[in-house]
Amino acid sequence: MSKFWSQVVHNLTPYVPGEQPKLPNLIKLNTNENPYGPSPKVLEALRAEAADSLRLYPDPDSNKLKAAIAEFHGLSSAQVFVGNGSDEVLAHTFQALLKHNAALLFPDITYSFYPVYCRLYGIQYQTIPLTGSFEINVDDYRQPNGGIIFPNPNAPTGRLLALAEIERLLKVNTDSVVVVDEAYIDFGGESAVVLVNQYPQLLVIHTLSKARSLAGLRVGYAVGHPDLIDALQRVKDSFNSYPLDRFAQAGAVAAMQDRAYFENIRQKVITTRTKLISDLEALDFSVLPSGANFIFARHVSRDGADLTAQLRERSIIVRHFKNPARIAPFLRITIGTEYQCRSLVEALREIEATANP
Ligand SMILES: Cc1ncc(COP(=O)(O)O)c(C=O)c1O
């Protein structure tokens, strides 16, 4: 704390990202990265970008990338906004579209960056409890609000909300923006992008960090009505003219265009997820249904924090949330390669055997 800090800084509670430890031979299943590398075409595009042209600023509007995203989704470039990771797209969305007199609504258990943005931008919010089975009930959001935001699938639960439920919400919630954060939608869910032409209040946010294996490149985007996109553009152009560098733009274009690679690796993750869930169930875990590249699992009797610590001793890192209390028994486990998931299951068997010799 310092006397030089502004009042805003005094009031912040910054988001704490999952750790990125530098230990050798670690099995890292804590931050929902893809266990497979990006498309070889992305690497080729990045190598081509390492040239004399780096002395020049990149395209401030990332026009080629917007066109590639629009083409992928069958939309127009005017319906696309891009940013430095979907976290930046989310930050601009909170400031541009979700700060109003009525409270912003989001689930009580959700991506923990949402309340952080609210504090940064002075946005009032109200959390809506998930059901007893950790689901979003859209009827609970039928109340006056300054906006609604939720991830689908939700994080850290992994639970999916059906597209028909999102549409049911959009039909009744017409006077404020509904943001669907689809960071994990490519691992088995139905995207709400198909609804953006029909519902001008819908904004859908995607990232290239997960299904396209580019967490290190920092690219995310939003699609929605051009009026919503304009609002984001106005904030971006008042904040940073060049949020995406030349590498990010070139790599992201190649990633959006390589559909075959994308289909292949997301399918591999889904297949490994099915196997991991059945292996964990055989070890007395109950696992929430997951539409994401992670699962949320609790052991019938063992403590979540204790299991996390024991896995860590065996060089396997998973994520554990102490709060709120009702998720404290759970481990959030990223789907790794088949080998990594087998190692996790073996470690859990060993932990069980040591406890009950
Ligand atoms: C629900 C959700 N939204 C957005 C993000 C941010 O992703 P990125 O900034 O890497 O695009 C994450 C990251 O884990 C997430 O879990």
Portion of residues in helices? Answer: 25-40%
Mean pLDDT: 96
* DSSP strand content: 5-15%
Sheet with the most strands, sense and barrel status: 7 strands, mixed
Q: What is bound: which ligands?
A: pyridoxal-5'-phosphate
Name the strands of the widest sheet in spatial order: 2-8-7-6-5-3-4
Tally of helical runs: 11
Measured on Cα atoms, how large is the radius of gyration? Answer: 21 Å
CATH superfamily of the largest domain: Type I PLP-dependent aspartate aminotransferase-like (Major domain)
What's the CATH architecture name of the largest domain?
3-Layer(aba) Sandwich
Counting helices, strands and paired strands, the structural category is alpha/beta
| Termini separation | 50 Å
What is the element layout, followed by pairings?
Elements: H1 7-10, E1 27-29, H2 40-49, H3 63-73, E2 80-83, H4 85-97, E3 104-107, H5 113-121, E4 125-128, E5 147-151, H6 163-172, E6 178-181, E7 202-207, E8 220-224, H7 226-236, H8 246-257, H9 259-282, E9 285-287, E10 294-299, H10 304-313, E11 316-318, E12 330-334, H11 338-355
Parallel strand pairs: 1-11, 3-4, 3-5, 5-6, 6-7
Antiparallel strand pairs: 2-8, 7-8, 9-10, 10-12
